[in-house]
Amino acid sequence: ASKFTQQVGYGNAVGFLVNKGIPMEPPQGSSSETQEDVNPITGQYVKEEKLPDLKDMTDEEKEREAERLFVLFERLKKTGIIDVENPIAKAMQESQGRFEEIQSDSDSD
C-alpha cells in the first residue's frame, strides 16, 4: 500500500484503499531520497524519459513534427478540450489598425 501511495499520491490512493478495507496512515515525511522522480503527466521515470533532440532532426523532420503538432492542437480545439489560438492570428487581430505595411525601396523597382 505504501508503494502504491508513493506512485499515485496519497490523496489519489486513500479513497481506493478505504473502499478495499485497507487502512493507511498519511505519510509522515518525504522520502524523496529513496523514491525515483515520476513525471505526473506521462507516468514515466524522469531519468528514463528520452526527449527529442532537435539538433539531430533535419529541417524536413522538424517541419513534419510541427505539422503533426498543429493537427493535434486543431483536434483538441474542435473537441473543445482546450481553447487554442494561432499566436500570429491573435497578434494580427489585436493589432488591427496599429501597424501598416510599408513598401521597401526594392518594391518600387
Automatic annotation (TrEMBL):
Highest rank taxon of the organism: Eukaryota
Keywords: Chaperone, Guanine-nucleotide releasing factor
Region entry Disordered, spans: 21-60
One GO CC annotation: cytoplasm
Transport keyword on record: no
Basic and acidic residues bias spans: 46-60
Biological process, per Gene Ontology: G protein-coupled receptor signaling pathway
GO molecular function annotations of the record: G-protein alpha-subunit binding; guanyl-nucleotide exchange factor activity
InterPro entries with a match to the protein in the record: Gua_nucleotide_exch_fac_Ric8
Similarity remark: Belongs to the synembryn family.
Protein name listed in UniProt: Guanine nucleotide exchange factor
Species in which this protein is naturally found: Mucor circinelloides f. lusitanicus (Mucor racemosus var. lusitanicus)
